[in-house]
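Retro notes (design track)

What went well: tokenization of the new backbones is finally stable.
What didn't: we kept losing track of which sequence belonged to which structure.
Fix going forward: every design gets posted as structure first, then sequence, in one message. First example under the new rule, 131 residues:
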């Protein structure tokens, strides 16, 4: 059974940092692209970071220079390091995995399956940034 489990969320003051983790199981982690998405209240889900199996990455303009994606294949875990957090970063953060997603095509449109082209999703974790 494929599982993606996010952890590390919580409440942080503006300007602070958090590191989210995404623990993966049930698939060959190093063969998959990992994406981080977020969804703020009343807004559409936004793809913010991607790392593919060849190490190429994508970062949305909204987080470029502040957020960094990384993976540890030995631990089957992906990370999202978030620095210089702003109140507008408040959202539920999701990790997702896909075997064929190239990061230069990330993020894909939501699509008819509402999956943004990603096969597997975590349940999400809340990050709240106070002003």
């Amino acid at each position: 059974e494929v599982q993606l489990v996010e952890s590390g969320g919580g409440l942080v003051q503006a300007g602070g940092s958090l590191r989210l983790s995404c623990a993966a199981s049930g698939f060959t982690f190093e063969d998959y692209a990992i994406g981080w998405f977020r969804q703020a209240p009343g807004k559409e889900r936004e793809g913010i970071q991607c790392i593919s199996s060849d190490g190429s990455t994508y970062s949305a303009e909204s987080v470029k220079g502040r957020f960094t994606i990384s993976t540890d294949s030995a631990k089957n875990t992906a990370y999202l390091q978030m620095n210089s957090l702003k109140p507008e970063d408040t959202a539920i953060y999701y990790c997702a995995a896909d075997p064929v997603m190239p990061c230069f095509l990330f993020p894909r449109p939501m699509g008819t399956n509402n999956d943004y082209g990603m096969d597997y999703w975590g349940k999400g974790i809340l990050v709240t940034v106070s002003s």
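Added context from the reviewer: The first strand starts at residue 3 and ends at 7.
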